[in-house]
Amino acid sequence: MAGQVKHKRIFSSIRPDWRLAKLLLTLPRRNTDAIIGAIARVLGAEGITLMDSTSFLEPLLARAGVLTRRAPTEQERKHIEYGRAVARHLAQYDIGQTVVIAETACVAVEAMEGTDATIERAGQIMKAASGSEAPAAEAERESLLSRALTVVKVAKPDQDMRFDVPVVGVKTIETMRRAGATCLALAAGKTLLLDGAAFLEAADAAGIAVVAD
Description:
The protein is α/β, with parallel strands linked by helices.
């Protein structure tokens, strides 16, 4: 399996066939793992085995360490430490994989909207706080605390590598730049870097530090 899981589609007007309808109505929870895990079991009953979605993409998995020219600052590392603690709690309930932090305060958490929308929302919150249309990192002015954002994306505690593996790409960096985010922390070995070289080039050009652990 490959591609984004648009969880909100379960509330769309699309009418599922009888098999999917039955599956949805019998699930005690309708989070991503429950839905896709049930689909995997249905496929398995038909003799179809799902392979790990990264089987042929291992070179694109984030390696441990600092991936960009710039390493996170001491303050960004504090944001990462706090953000990972928050994100791991969310991930264990399969709510979302991403949190956005500023000054060790949680600005936004991901649910059904996806990573990019979460980052955009965090940027809008910071712009509203500053009363400026400029990105948060450019709108410091008289604020006592920095409005620069750190994005933390984790894998689930028991991440099923067959589906819903964390993914970032050039679009992630572009969204971060617009929002005023300066640092991105990822799960090493469990996050796919789409267009790996272009992704890191975009991060370097934007002055964004990327680290995986």
